[in-house]
Amino acid sequence: MTSPIRAVIFDWAGTIVDFGSLAPVMAFAAAFEDARVPVTLEEIRKPMGLPKRDHIVKMFDDGEIRDRWRREHRADPTGDDIDALYAATNDRLIDLLPKHAEPIPGTLEAIGALRAAGVKIGSNSGYAAPLMEILTGAARAHGLVVDCVVSASDVSAPRPAPDLSFKCLELLELERGSVGIKVDDTGVGIEEGRNAGLWTVAVAVSGNAMGLSLAEWSALTPDEQNVRRRHAHEALRGFGPDYVVDSVADLAGVVTDVERRVAAGERVLA
Predict the structure, then answer these.
(1) Domains of the chain
(2) d(CA 21, CA 15)
(3) pTM of structure
């Protein structure tokens, strides 16, 4: 090994695939539209990173969405309603995920550099296992391969609990407290990494905080990009990550700095 970092654990949508984290947003929007209760993109994105059924439950914590549902259906949403929305979301994702499996620019290069330094590549997601099988299979066709995949349905406690990261370390045959990095585009994903004792890196431009496709982002003027970049960075800093970058394309500098800090004795747990 040439790096003291034992593992980097990546989130999927908005972090290493699906620039803008578009597939889950489109799926939720369609499910609610079919239920005759339209929701905004902002409302969908607020709970992003949670397991998808928990995401729907969290959306209904918003009084405006609950009121819309009550006006349309003349009753509060029930567990059966949530199950139906969850099933509809998953049905949409089955079609959407293969179309949103292309690696975010810089991902393959970042993973290649980590592997060359002897770093193991973990990953986890708020998607359930059947959906992750679809996504990882489609991503593999683009050359994206990781050492382990942990889905929301593989653990008992969802984000921001550390269980997803702990399960990754277990599958990578590493002990809790090993020097590792969690890379994520959502607040709960960053909190998950922090709670697992990992260094944390938030990606702002490629993910949920920005919410634009690569084409939409590229079409903005430099001034527009700077304004929106600043807002996205500030939003993610509120969750306490060690670093905030635009995308995984900027990970090399973070890795170098974490290696420097570890060599200086900072936060070495095991």
Answers:
(1) 7-21+102-263 (3.40.50.1000), 23-98 (1.10.150.240)
(2) 8
(3) 0.95
